[in-house]
């Protein structure tokens, strides 16, 4: 299906999601705002820094680059975090656009995250406080086209950002515990 975008160039729409299903899911959230689910992941180390995580039958491979003593066979953990954020924002943008009945013809996210590792993962490097470690700044640029003015597309992106579960996980402190099995 082709349409005319803001640039008056015929473009095919991205594959849509089920709007009625989305509206039903939103209604469940309004009726039970305290509902929570639980995501589970099982991670196994293969050697060096290479890990395989099982997520609902899907494998997610993580490694470190050569300069950080990995084998560079897969993205690094911080890159996976940015990937999760990009995916979550894309889901949200798609959902909000669907809710607002704005067909999209292009959606690409470009993410950057500034990270340092002076602590060497706690293996004898600098000993910073927890708030000084991890990704310290994130920049996301969204390349979006759809059947709406630029201002509406920006509203869609900003609303999706505001309600992004992964975006808010990154922005907000959360309860976190770790223990031996």
Automatic annotation (TrEMBL):
Q: What Pfam families does the entry give?
A: OsmC
**Enzyme Commission code:** 1.11.1.-
Q: Which InterPro entries match?
A: KH_dom-like_a/b, OsmC/Ohr_fam, OsmC/Ohr_hydroprdx_reductase, OsmC/Ohrsf
**Official protein name in the record:** OsmC family protein
Write down the species.
Spiribacter onubensis
Q: Which domain of life is it from?
A: Bacteria
Any idea which UniProt keywords this protein has?
A: Oxidoreductase, Peroxidase
The GO terms describing molecular function are: peroxidase activity
Q: Which PANTHER family match?
A: HYDROPEROXIDE REDUCTASE
| Gene3D superfamilies per record | 3.30.300.20
């Amino acid at each position: 299906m082709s349409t005319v975008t803001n640039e008056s160039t015929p473009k095919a729409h991205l594959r849509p999601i089920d709007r009625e299903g989305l509206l039903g899911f939103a209604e469940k959230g309004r009726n039970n705002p305290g509902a929570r689910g639980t995501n589970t992941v099982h991670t196994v180390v293969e050697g060096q820094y290479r890990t395989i995580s099982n997520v609902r039958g899907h494998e997610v491979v993580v490694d470190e680059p050569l300069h950080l003593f990995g084998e560079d066979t897969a993205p690094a953990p911080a890159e996976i975090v940015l990937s999760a954020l990009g995916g979550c924002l894309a889901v949200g943008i798609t959902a909000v656009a669907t809710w607002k009945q704005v067909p999209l013809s292009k959606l690409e996210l470009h993410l950057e995250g500034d990270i340092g590792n002076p602590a060497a993962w706690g293996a004898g490097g600098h000993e910073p406080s927890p708030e000084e470690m991890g990704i310290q700044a994130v920049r996301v640029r969204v390349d979006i086209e759809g059947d709406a003015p630029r201002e509406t597309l920006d509203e869609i992106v900003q609303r999706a950002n505001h309600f992004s579960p992964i975006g808010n996980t990154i922005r907000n402190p959360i309860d976190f515990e770790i223990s031996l099995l």
